[in-house]
Write a structure and sequence with these properties.
By secondary structure, the protein is α/β, with parallel strands linked by helices. It is built from four helices and four strands.
């Protein structure tokens, strides 16, 4: 992330960057809830996530972001709250993976808080 020529740095510095989705979901209308997972790059989601959010109509759907990060949090306010017509649930960001962490427990508790049985 400190390499100015890295893919993440180049894409994040270009707000108009919208990488193409290799294979679009042909039946998005069949889903009521969409979990959107991604790594955090420079405190935000990769631009392919912007492409995804702009490619579908999320009206009436529930969108739930989750992310991994080396240290920064998830900024769900910026992009996800602007997903027109969707209910956006609180996301989860797992940061700083380390041996002995309680990652599995955190994920299970988050899923339960969202109202899903696991």
């Amino acid at each position: 992330w400190t390499d100015k020529t890295s893919r993440s740095t180049i894409k994040i510095k270009d707000p108009s960057s919208r990488p193409a989705i290799a294979e679009k979901c042909g039946n998005m209308g069949d889903y009521d809830t969409v979990f959107v997972g991604f790594p955090v790059w420079w405190y935000v989601e990769p631009t392919i996530i912007d492409t995804f959010l702009e490619s579908y109509d999320f009206t009436g759907k529930t969108v739930i972001p989750f992310a991994t990060s080396g240290g920064s949090g998830i900024n769900e306010e910026a992009k996800f709250r602007s997903t027109t017509g969707a209910e956006v649930k609180n996301g989860l960001c797992i940061s700083g993976f380390s041996a002995g962490s309680n990652t599995e427990t955190r994920v299970q508790n988050w899923i339960k808080e969202l109202g899903y049985n696991i």
